[in-house]
Amino acid sequence: xxxxxxxxxxxxxxxxxxxxxxxxxKGPSRRPTRFEPLEGRMMLTVGGPGFPxxxxxxDGLFNAGDGDVLLNNGELSDGKxxxxxxxxxxxxxxxxxxxxxIDGAAITVTGNINYKASxxxxxxxNLTAGDDLKLxxxxxxxxxxxxxxxxxxxxxxxxxxxxxxxxxxxxxxxDIYALAGGNIFLVTCTITGGRGIEMYAGGFIExxxxxxxxxxxxxxxxxxxxVNSVGGTLSAIGSHGEVELWSGNFINVSTAQxxxxxxxxxxxxxxxxxxxxxxxxxxxxxxxxxxANIVGAGSTIDAQGSxxxxxxxxxxxxxLTDATVTAAKQIDIHTRxxxxxxxxxxxxxxxxxxxEARLNVDLSASANRAAVIRAFKDIYIESKTAxxxxxxxxxxxxxxxxxGEIKIKAADxxxxxxxxxxxxKKLKLQGTQVGTPLNVAQGxxxxxx
Length: 449
Fold this sequence. Notes:
Number of helices: 1
Strand content: 35-45%
Low-confidence stretches: 1-29, 35-45
Mean pLDDT: 90
Helix content: under 10%
């Protein structure tokens, strides 16, 4: 790109769609849509019959002709039932592979609740346990059809296939555990653990529009497939509060609110979508890392406290257009690809801002605002093989800094038209400069109002 005067801009949307590949994109990078790939399979339309029964053919519908067995003699009232074990005057011969439908009057037990089904376990009524509440499906799914589940201690849900729920309430004084060999689908739910919340899925985890709160522990979501919480809230603000999301594919938390007392960690094998989301920790660091792309346009990433640091790393492109990234200490952004941060606001209140990319670094103005970078110590921006664009940007050492250095290195062209650069101690600009900066001088600037 040495023989042109204009600046070639790559389209991030095309990069993400995979239709333009100046970058080293790893695998497909399409955005998983909300509640994908459900196709109605996860949505609950069962609607209970008004009483509990053993479901011989796992269709969720009571029919004595199918071998279903009515449970109306207190078989569930002690909090223990297993379709593989005979119990009570009605269920004298276990039905192989049978499911269990819990419907009718709410069940309250002073001790543990432990309901097991060889087949599908459907809960259509409220369950309250004075100790632990455990639901298990050995070979199929656990389906929550609008119940409220309450336990003084832990709630544990285990399914060989899926765990599904829509607009349900889960409240535990202790921990909440959900383990599925397939998918976990708990949408528009309220999930509250007095300690922590852990979910593990062999498929995907979908918590779209749900409010998930770990009062004094961690939120730990791990899936072989996608982890999604679009529009949801993940909150772990107690003294042990951490939020960790791990995905073998995509993470999509667009427009979500994620709050923690300690670390927030997002790790994915494929693209991470945090656009429009807020990620905030009041006492530690935020780590976002992927083998593919990070889409974070319009996001707010805020790490405060004595360990307040932000680390963002990708093998693919990083999009922070119009994002606000603030850290009590340091901000590090690294990619083997390109950084798109038009209109971004980056503040490292007590340490450095580091941006390193193999391809372009774009810190020019967006359609909404100019880019602003402030650091108490050093600001380092580098493109190892291509251009750096800081047109219209304001890049400065913070007021009070005496040792702050600014280094901007472009392997090719450095676009500086209208840029403002103020450094406390030292400045180094490297690359073929294009345009005329507005102001370059020794000095400092306060935070913009």
